Amino acid sequence: MKLLLRHAYVLLVCAFALFPILFVVSAAINPLGTLASSDLLPTGASLDNFAKLFSSDVYPFGRWFFNSVFIALASSSASLLLSMFAAYAFSRMRFAGRRVGLLSLLLIQMFPQFLAIVTIFMIFTRVTELYPAFGFNTTWGILLLYLGGALGVNTWLMKGFLDTIPKELDESATVDGATHAQIFWKIILPLVTPILAVTALLAFIGTMSEFLMANIFLRDPESKTLAVGMYGMIAGDGRNANFGMFAAATLLTAIPTVSVFLWLQKFIVSGLTAGAVKG
Amino acid sequence: MSLDVREAAEVRSTPRPRRELTTAYVVSRIAVLAVAAAILLYAVPPLVAAESWVSLTVLGLASAIIGYLYLTRRFVPAKYLVPGTVFLIAFQVFPVLYTVSTAFTNFGDGHRGDKAAAITAIETGSVRQAPGSPEYGLSAALKGDTLVFLLVDPKTKQVQEGTAAGLAPVQGARLGVTGKVIEAPGYTVLKAPEAAARAGQIAGLAVPTRGGLIKANGLSRAVEGRAALAYDAGCDCVRGEGDTWTADESQGYFVNAKGEHLAQGWQVNVGLANFARVVTDPTLSAHFLGMFTWNVAFALLSVLGTFALGMSVALALHHPKMRGTRIYRIALILPYAMPAFAMLLVWRDMFNRDFGLINNLFGLDVDWLGGAVSAKAAVLLVNLWLGFPYMFLVTTGALQAIPRELNEAASIDGAPPSYAFRKVTLPLLLVSLSPLLISSFAFNFNNYNAIALTTDGGPFPADSPTVGATDLLISYTVRLAFGQGAAQFGLAATMSVFIFAIVATISAITFRRTRKLEDVYA
């Protein structure tokens, strides 16, 4: 009886979790493709919205998809590498300024980068004048910007992981004549790969959804990410008419993340407790 | 035994053996040099062209230091720290410091440049056609490669050349029937389509005269205008149109006796004026307090709501006889795997009054996001949906780490399950999860997406079109700087500084409290 109550409660929460997703699915295969005609349960099945999405002249969805995946992949892997470097130094070496460095990172961590968006805008106005290839409307510009936030977010987390790896491992390697670079690439990095994968996945998801800075940065249709582009798709007049297309785009955006998620499920539970947030 | 890497290196370096030059060593050093050279080659020319000597010096010094760092064998920790630190300084530390300094200025629309730029803008903006001045016949022409005006006085038929340097007489020009120059020795007169192609350049050319400026009016006429307003350095004021505007360095405006100011101002240091404005300005401060309260409530309720729901499901599933947990778990994680930005927009449209799913399903006609209370409830519900799978995941993980024996011992001692939960399970959960709850609070405190993509701060009350009922400090700040109205970068930066201060205070307090928790339970 009590077990039945548990099942009932979990089923209720599952319904809450799934009904918006069900709505997206039925809107995506809704042949009419408008918000008004979309219902919770599918009223018809067609792939018109997907076809419209890929043949659209106004919305270069493929380009956005590429931009988003490229930016998210590049920035999550590069920023993890940068913070791994720093964490390696903090965890394994003793040097003047180590304590100050760690404490200032803790302090910097409290000030999320996007709070300085006003001056980031001003700085990049100047950068756009000097180096158009790294200015507004460019993938490289926003990539650089995202890398700026790398060290503050992940270094402490990574240092925590590295501290759990026994120091004796690198000591014995040092005795065998390994250099610090060899220890890092051949011993430390392989050992933290599983946990790194989880953190990278979280960084990937976070970057895919980053909207504040991207929306100010990327105004040119060809340069937009999915978040910025799809926001424009159902803004203003397109809100009702383009909803089917938007739902189809949402499903396509979810495919890579969902599949990686299911694949990494067993790492995720243990990896998540080590930190990182999504609201 | 804590023999660390540096000590080990020192031990070996006496007497220093000659280390072999391995291929990896040589290749990596060449790569460093090549990358450094490429960056310098790319970055230097634009800086030279812009005559930005300070940036050039910084760039030169930085690359010299980095180059040296990677070519020597010393400073091993620095080799690992520098790559991230460079980005950190350039794109986080510097912008934050710059934000703080901008908070003390009035930078924004109307105050973008310095005083000289403001004076130029005021004077050229006030140019009107001088009364009784001639309307010249204009032909645009090229002298060599430079664009010049060939001007014909309609009365005297005298031809003059107009350049940015001034007027000069032209001899031997042939005039057409329309009173314009057709040919002149030494000049290439542009034909109409050629002139039209250079319309921008023609409109930009101003020929200074004794009392004013000659500017093109279209492509075939030019008029002499006089600046109605002129700057007088003697009194540091702008005169004209029967009035005098005196420079007010505290506001960065030229102000007249009635207290009105000219539209163009310049950037000045306003001290604490922006901060005072947030706290004392009657319209702003009333909303600031309300906005701050809502912001704290939003973050707090989001964390508590997601944690309560996530934990309760995790507890429900955490039972040895529970079947199908794998399927349930996948269903519960799915919201977390969907793209958050898109699902926020989907929720927004589910709450839509005219076409939304919620009104459709229940046959209602409620404007959910149009009322202050329902909009607040709606964003909290949306955030609950987005956030509870994460809490479910982490509590599941933490629950599995708590030994079952503890709860068994409690039940043997006769404690009812609810008592065992309160006294055993929950405290242990909080020890491992409280850092996550704190960072979740900090995250939601500045959860721009949750607001911008659903209500965009609305609904806006009639008496304050800028501060909406669901506005967080961050979404309000972004609107100040990038919204529809005039950009107020200075004030927006001040708001950012306020957010910094609030977040820092909250973090400091909570970090101290967590440490206490760990001392007690760990």
Topology (elements, then pairings):
The complex is a heterodimer of chains A (279) and B (522).
Chain A: H1 2-28, H2 48-55, H3 61-92, H4 98-109, H5 117-130, H6 139-148, H7 150-163, H8 167-175, H9 180-208, H10 212-217, H11 226-233, H12 238-241, H13 243-263, H14 265-272
Helix pairs in contact in A: 1-13, 2-13, 3-6, 3-7, 3-9, 3-11, 4-7, 8-9, 9-14
Chain B: H1 5-12, H2 23-49, H3 53-71, H4 76-102, H5 115-125, E1 127-129, E2 135-143, E3 146-152, E4 159-163, E5 166-169, E6 174-175, E7 181-183, E8 188-189, H6 192-197, H7 199-204, E9 206-208, E10 213-217, E11 221-227, E12 230-232, E13 237-240, E14 243-248, E15 253-255, H8 273-280, H9 282-317, H10 325-337, H11 340-350, H12 357-362, H13 372-401, H14 404-412, H15 417-445, H16 448-452, H17 473-482, H18 489-521
Antiparallel strand pairs in B: 1-11, 2-3, 2-8, 2-11, 3-4, 4-5, 6-7, 9-10, 10-11, 12-13, 13-14, 14-15
Helix pairs in contact in B: 2-3, 4-18, 8-9, 9-13, 9-15, 10-13, 13-15, 14-15, 15-18, 17-18
* N-to-C span of chain A: 35 Å
Secondary structure category of chain B: alpha+beta
- Overall morphology of chain A: globular
Number of strands of chain A: 0
Per the principal axes of the C-alpha atoms, what is the gross shape of chain B? elongated
Output the structural class of chain A: mainly alpha
What are the key terms here?
heterodimer; A: mainly alpha; 14 helices; B: 522 residues; alpha+beta; nine-stranded antiparallel sheet; 15 strands; 56% helix
Give a structural overview.
The complex is a heterodimer of chains A (279) and B (522). Chain A has 14 helices and no strands. Chain A has 279 residues and is mainly alpha-helical. In chain A, helix 2 (48-55) crosses helix 13, helix 3 runs parallel beside helix 6 and helix 3 packs antiparallel against helix 9. The model of chain A is unreliable at 271-279 (pLDDT under 50). Chain B is α+β, with helices and mostly antiparallel strands and 522 residues long. Residues 1-17 of chain B have low confidence and may be disordered. Chains A and B meet through helix 1, helix 3, helix 4, helix 5 and helix 6 of A and helix 1, helix 2, helix 4, helix 9 and helix 10 of B.
